[in-house]
Design goal:
heterodimer, A: 693 residues, alpha/beta, Rossmann fold, Beta-Lactamase, 5 domains, five-stranded parallel sheet, five-stranded antiparallel sheet, 18 helices, B: 122 residues, 5 helices, 5 strands
Chain lengths: 693, 122
């Protein structure tokens, strides 16, 4: 059991102090001295007024002599006792001379019903005084315990009420999301709940959604604060934009951050890939600050709103995709029946008795043409179904791009001439090899050219350009055709989409060609892009493919060492730096095959990191890389070489091939320079030479 | 009889043209709606055999041109590979018959005969 004095230490002394009131100051100070020596906190009061003030401020016991209890003093003390909180009954110890006891007891009834009086005989033995004092204070302490208990219960009750409100608010919000309400209605509901649950003066959702390639702003203002919308000006919208761009979680904003809105607590509404699309905000509620509970609730409501926004988008996309699929099936039916009609009709024509020889010739020609159209259609469908099943494979080997492009352009010359369309070509003079599947590369170029010709009117122009750009091969096919509207531009490479779904048939075909192109290009580690200035302004398709680093097919790797002229690179540690993963891997594979220990990184920063743990004998680096290039790597190497305590021989392996490139590269500090694509043996010899230095 | 065959597919256009030429009709052909309207402006036809889905101006475009011209003499047969939902949009009063691709040559000719039998004796 803890002693009274120990508890005194824990609790503030004020609620346990002993207040003394005696008419003569000496009485009071004598008693105060005795109590203080025994370890109590005792304070003498000069008047009943001061005693009452002391009781109100907090005290354990009030000690009063009978003489001090004049009628006005009794009235004053009675009034104070009456205003005590329900749990409180401050012990009142009255010192009375023994002979007066009965009379005094009666007169003290004037102290009122809330007086908890103990009469003490005078004169009093010190030990008795101290013991009575301890008893009184113990009783006072129990009152404090009750007070704390009551307060705790009250707090629990309030918390429970608040959490019930939160739960019902959150439940209502999630019901709203599950219901078939429109996005705007759901967001309004969530806004209202936010204001209600957090008991805030004002709540608002501000959100930008992409609909049909256009941005729409949604405002939802909590009920009772609708007028707020009117004070939203451009500056406010700019501020909202700024907040949305910076916050990633629920935050307290500085007061008056927003003109006219006095917004305080804001939570981001997240769209796909964690992009902030809008905000759920609360303005300050009267006389209170936001608690962590409020923050948690707002975060949850913001998450629900985010889910609602994403649901709405998914629903819209699903509907669009479904419509696109329906349109595609209608087109497919049409495109399959059309050549079938020609074939069936001409076969019937052949069966007619006495058919003329020139009709037979025409029939055969027409049947062949229609069959080819249908065969290509089926091939495209099969390719797409392989793409969907993830089963489209490419057989990669070094391929020179220029002859592929030339061959396809040649195939289209006759068809272009028929419609007086000019095909202009501007093809890279330098060698441009990629690591690719020749048949599929052919198909990519064929589809792009076929597409360009389809959409170019008679007398128009199609241009084909192939160039080496950094360590990429870039093929551009432009036409002077009907162009593409900005709304359709993002969907050009999608399956089952054609430029329009009206009955004006653009040209024969399913619109699968471009979807196939994009997929094939991706399989080659490249990228397909489209640009158009709009309807009637033509369009440009751009294919970017990484340039081949080493002229070798994966299948040939095992045989590399069997070549007699091939040097061995046993134990040479090589770090390869190339932003193109495939290129870097291929170089590493070749070098490892020859006995080297080659590692590959994709950026200058990673190279610097790797060099601290991998003691490379040689660094082989690409020059053209996004961000930090090969020259930057050279500067970094010079910086860290003192720390590494050694110099590392370097070799540039780059598609840059002009004499001035070579000069600049060697001047920057590279010991060797090799142009991509390199023969494996040439690469190995260069490495072996560098290793000997 | 003067016949105009309109289809963007070369095999079908040649086939239907040949079919009518064998009957001894005077046949012209067009590869899209625009070319068809140009022909209709310059010559008089008894019969137009018309595809629906074509580049530039489609079959519906040709039909509305004919409606504006109010030529009581010309009969229109629509031949199409389009889905039924689209075929239903063909105004009945403007066409004498609709035939779905692929079709029998005999069925097309029978439809033409029917169309001309149905000509009211004005």
């Amino acid at each position: 059991m803890t002693t009274l004095m120990e508890q005194n230490v824990e609790t503030s002394t004020r609620p346990l102090r002993v207040l003394l009131l005696a008419p003569t100051g000496r009485d009071a100070s004598t008693m105060a001295g005795i109590l203080s020596r025994a370890g109590f906190t005792a304070e003498a009061c000069a008047s009943a007024e001061e005693l009452c003030r002391g009781i109100n401020e907090g005290a354990g016991v009030a000690v009063v002599t009978a003489e001090a209890l004049t009628p006005p003093a009794m009235r004053r003390i009675s009034a104070t006792l009456a205003t005590q909180p329900p749990w409180s009954e401050i012990p009142l110890m009255i010192f009375v001379a023994a002979p007066d006891m009965d009379r005094a007891a009666r007169s003290f009834e004037g102290l009122g019903p809330r007086a908890y009086v103990t009469l003490v005989d005078r004169p009093i033995h010190v030990k008795t005084l101290l013991s009575s004092m301890r008893t009184a204070l113990r009783s006072r302490l129990r009152q404090y315990d009750i007070r704390d208990l009551l307060a705790e219960q009250q707090k629990l009750l309030e918390n429970e009420r608040a959490s019930t409100l939160r739960l019902s608010g959150l439940a209502e919000a999630s019901l709203a999301i599950a219901s078939a309400l429109s996005l705007d209605d759901v967001l309004q509901m969530i806004t209202d709940q936010a204001a209600k649950v957090i008991n805030s003066r004002f709540a608002m959702i501000w959100l930008k959604v992409e609909e049909n390639a256009q941005t729409r702003t949604i405002w939802a203002i909590s009920a009772g604060a609708e007028g707020t919308r009117d004070v939203v000006d451009d500056a406010t919208v700019a501020a909202l934009d700024e907040i949305a761009a910076t916050i990633k979680s629920t935050v307290l904003l500085p007061r008056k951050k927003l003109a006219g809105l006095d917004a305080m607590l804001a939570a981001p509404l997240l769209e796909r890939e964690g992009r902030t699309a809008g905000l759920l905000m609360l303005a300050e509620r009267p006389n209170a600050v936001f608690t962590t509970d409020d923050e948690a609730v707002l975060t949850q409501l913001a998450q629900m709103a985010s889910v609602a926004v994403q649901n709405a988008r998914l629903y819209r996309e699903a509907q669009d995709a479904n419509r696109a699929k329906d349109d595609f099936l209608a087109t497919l039916a049409h495109e399959l029946r059309t050549p079938m009609t020609g074939i069936l009709g001409w076969v019937q024509m052949l069966k007619i008795d006495g058919v003329a020889q020139n009709d037979v010739d025409t029939a055969i020609e027409m049947i062949e043409g229609s069959t080819r159209v249908q065969a290509r259609l089926v091939e495209d469908l099969l390719d797409v179904s392989r793409i969907i099943a993830g089963k489209l494979r490419v057989d990669l080997a070094p391929v020179e791009l220029r002859p592929v492009v030339e061959a396809v352009v040649e195939m289209f010359h006759a068809r272009a001439a028929e419609r007086r369309i000019t095909i202009e070509t501007k093809l890279e003079e330098r060698p441009l090899s990629v690591y690719g599947d020749e048949t599929r590369l052919h198909q990519i170029v064929w589809n792009l050219l076929s597409n360009a010709l389809k959409f170019t009117p008679e007398g128009g122009r199609v241009s084909v350009a192939l160039q080496l750009s950094g360590s990429k091969g870039v093929l551009r096919v432009s036409d002077s055709g009907q162009g593409i509207s900005p709304e359709f531009l993002p969907y050009v490479f999608d399956r089952f989409r054609q430029f329009d779904n009206s009955t004006v048939r653009q040209q024969a075909g399913l619109g699968l060609g471009l979807a196939i192109v994009r997929h094939l290009v991706t399989l080659h580690g490249g990228q397909a892009d489209v640009a158009s200035d709009g309807i009637g302004k033509g369009s440009t398709f751009t294919i970017t493919l990484p340039v081949l680093a080493v002229r070798v097919a994966r299948a040939e790797l095992p045989q590399l060492l069997t070549k007699p002229e091939m040097p061995r690179l046993d134990g040479i540690r090589i770090l390869i730096v190339d932003d193109d993963d495939e290129a870097g891997k291929l170089v590493a594979l070749v070098l490892n095959q020859l006995g080297a220990e080659a590692r590959e990184v994709m950026s200058v920063a990673d190279a610097v990191k790797e060099l601290r743990r991998f003691e490379a004998d040689i660094v082989v680096s690409d020059i053209a890389m996004p961000g930090e290039d090969g020259y930057a790597l050279m500067r970094k190497l010079r910086e860290i070489e003192p720390q590494l305590g050694r110099q590392i021989p370097t070799m540039a392996l780059t598609a840059y091939g002009r004499p001035q490139d070579r000069t600049r590269i060697l001047a920057s500090g590279f010991q060797k320079y090799i142009q991509k694509p390199v023969e494996p043996v040439e690469l190995a010899r260069a490495i072996a030479e560098l290793a000997r230095v | 009889m003067n016949v105009l065959v309109v289809d963007d597919d070369v095999a079908i256009r040649t086939l239907v043209s040949r079919l009518f030429a064998r009957r001894g009709d005077n046949v012209q052909s067009a590869a899209d709606g625009e070319a068809a309207i140009a022909c209709l402006e310059h010559y008089e036809f008894d019969l137009v055999v018309l595809d629906l889905m074509m580049p530039r101006t489609d079959g519906f475009g040709v039909l509305s041109y004919l409606e504006r011209r109010k030529d009581p003499k010309v009969r229109v047969i629509v031949m199409t590979a389009a889905v039924p939902a689209l075929v239903q949009r063909v105004p009945e009063n403007l066409v004498a018959g609709v035939i779905a691709k692929p079709f029998d040559l005999a069925a097309l000719l029978a439809l033409v005969d029917e169309a001309f039998l149905a000509v009211p004796l004005a």
